[in-house]
Protein 1
Amino acid sequence: MLFRSPDGFKLSDEAEGEIEALTGRDDLPRPTGAGLGRLESDPGAEEEYVAAVAATVPEGLAGLRVVLDCAHGAAFRVAPQLFQALGARVTVLNDRPDGLNINAGCGALHPEALQEAVKRDGADAGLAFDGDADRVIAVDERGQVVDGDQILAVAALHLGRAGRLPGSAVVATVMSNLGLERALEAAGIRLVRTRVGDRYVLEAMRQGGYALGGEQSGHVIFLEHATTGDGLVAGAQLLRIMRETGRRLSELAAVMVRYPQVLVNVELPGRDVADRLAASRAVGEAVARAEKALAGRGRVLVRASGTEPVVRVMVEGEDAARVEVLARDLAAVIRRELG
């Protein structure tokens, strides 16, 4: 279940904590059957939503051919309606939800079928949504994946040139690729990093008065048009940029070069993983050695998961083989010292 505040934004951690504390109480009423309430449907909601998102692309998308992977999820009706209303030629994949097949081998989590369909159909682009359609991963005309970081880079440079990027800054998490930071720096745009989670991206955007932010996973927030990550809004804005510039998606995405990035999850016993990690001198020294080895041409991130007894190790840099070795060595130190 997802709660939102009256202004349409996600609740703060504190507010969600209060709700969780209340729902965990034993003295609350526990209705069953008819006492649970009733479901009310608004037959005009889909039309209103499609019209609202279409209004963010007033020029339309006539002439573009796009393949949509709806992940057997929330976008299965509204995504085709939206892009057809905008004038694009649309091919639809995975739009037959049965209650069990959501995200099953498809959508933003599994874009392989979309990549093949884009190449087979000679489409200009493909858009893969996840089950609840708050994320989008794109595919260019060559069948190459364009992830959330690349979408942010394309949008940031375009909005910056148009004078529509407040503060000349973009917000992303600590997991966003160093290539995004480098691409933005080259254009005089600052990258503001937050902890992992789209809620923290949005908080930083609101606090700083920024208009664009998101995650590598495809949560992209265009605050001018939506109060949260919305895959259809983000996909429509990406295609709008293609239409306005007359450039192929592969050309636009080439502004960002992905640095090799290795992620290793180290599972550990106990519930005090974060405390042990913070207190470990040996781990701190290992991180410092890895950072020295990268010589300013990469990043090292070691953090404890907030939901499970796992330490996540991320190393990225110019040399893929070197990055792999550094990440595995760090993981070995963490297992030895904290396991």
Protein 2
Amino acid sequence: MTDRELLEYAAKAARLEEFTCINGRYAYRDRHTGLQDWVSWDPLVDDGDALRLVVKLNLQVSYEPEPEGPIVIAIFAHLPVIVSASEDLGKDPCAATRRAIVRAAAKVGKTMK
């Protein structure tokens, strides 16, 4: 799945309206401001957006030791949907954590109609 597809499905899971890409930046329409402004949103690169996604979806994030190296796991465990996504921590544990969060959220979004 491409980064854009991951973000589109994650936005769907987070119930963000009118998700789009404007000039290479991802955004959603914020109708709560009364102005219907476009708000930048990219949890693959923004720690705050990733954390808000964890909170909104009530994801569980944990770090596990593995023989090949440590991994981060994000889990959405709310019946009837249980999904998880893991990433190798590699050289950038923050980026790996954000990607695991977005991948788990995207799996949730993909199950939604």
Protein 3
Amino acid sequence: MAAKSSSKKSIAKKTGSLIPFRSDQRAVDALSHAEISVSSSDLGWRGISVEVGRNEGWSVDDLVIDGHYAAVNLLQEPLLIDRKVGRRWEQEIIPPNCLWIQPARVPFSFRVKQTSVYVGVVLNVDRLRAIAGRDIAFPPAFGSGDEVTAHIIHALAALARQGARGGLAVVDSLATALVHKLIATAADEQHQRVKGGLPRHRLRLVEEYVISNVAREFAVADLARLAGLSTFHFAREFKRSTGSSPHQYVVKCRVERAKELLVSGRQSVAEVAADCGFADQAHLSRTFKQMTGLTPSAWQKAAH
């Protein structure tokens, strides 16, 4: 088994990254320093390739990919990407098991300070056109939480890991499914821009973060950073999505958590206040009564 593992590592190192980066029309090995642990390089797949890699930081300027690219963040923490937009640098956030989607031949400049671990798929432009029946234009997407797309990419990586040379029918089926999901994702992004509000996956990320951390102090800028937006745009789009300002939403979450703790009866009102992020018991009492019409003590008694 040890010899087999060593062989895989040597093949991965020799193959290098399959992602066809270009700069000024020249091929560029922009991931020469990455460790590629899984690759479909020798499997004879048609118009699609997949790799699993580990990259210790990245700084690139005006690169393009000669193919449509979709990658899943395999880390257990968000991947932070500083992306150049015009003359500004903006931070994009890719949560665990979420996606970076980069259309073919669209330039990008990135700064990534942390280690990234990813599974990425490249779809040949002609292959996508053959499956879709037309050219598809879609913008880059950062942090897309589409689970089906992620599952398709993981399935392709699993096939490459198994050395699936003969299972081209399965690969073709997955490639077709991936194309249709990319088309649907592009349509969803366009609908979200017209409709306004936060994309569902980013809204869910913020909501889950607040609910899991009700005891801590929140600045709107912290939540905006989590959603990958400026403070102004985050506050506006969050209210469009939820009907509440970020501050109002945090207070609602604290009160809901306080209700749960009060019903359990295992803590005093003062302890509940501390565990739910209120300044003190009086602060909890005032806020609780404003939102429910009852004091915390009265709520606790009514629940029993």
Protein 4
Amino acid sequence: MTVTFLGEDAGGRTAENNLGTRTYTRVFKLKADSKNDGAYTVGSNASLPTIGSTHPDDASAWCRRLRVENTDPFAGWTVTAEYSSELELATNPTLQPAEITWDSEQFQKPVLFDNTGDAVCNSAGGLFDPPAMMDDSRRVVTVQKNLSAVPVWILDYQDAVNSDQFTVDGVVIAVGTAKMQRVSVGVQETRNGVTFRPVTFTIHLQRDGWAMELLDSGFMIKDPGDSTKRVAAYIDDGTEPTTAAMLDGSGGILANPSPATAVFLSFDVYKTRTFSSLPLS
């Protein structure tokens, strides 16, 4: 059983430019010498374009589809190759550039600071109870990349924050401002004989970072006579506070608390990992 490649049909060439997206078709003729030669055998002929190969006249247009038709049963066949410049492809799917999109998501968080960085407190320097809530918008970067297998880092990067400066889609991301939010792995696929898994991961960006900022406050303070012990906090008139008292960052009562003098403690609650090593391109 032999399939003979007869060449390209010059009259089958078409082209179109639709708002900057260029598409092309090319038609090829082949001949089979057996009724047992089917569409798969014909479409797999080594002289035909492969998915991800570039157009001979436009290196920025890639073959996206091959359509095989039996035109003269059983011997005559045509194969139509369709090209597009819309999305860069590669004959090896694991070498295909990552697809990156940007979005935003809206959350809510307690109001701790005003836009100057001062604490949000009542006129006596106390916390609002319950605290007011505010919008917390996050930029969301979604990266889709074909990988040869399920990535080994999929568990190690759970809720991880970047320990390094890295670049995604041409944008430089500062240390501590990105967090791995979600990872999904698609079913195994095969293209041009290469198996791969589409992997999609979502990174949330916070302009001010992911450290947890908490107001230093409580009902207990360090014992002035023995810092290894704690005693009840007392306010200026010698009475115990009915709500948590504002502390000074060293375990004592904050004198004359105000929004400008309130002390916040910063905690790094997420583990850190290098993001520059991720498949971002």
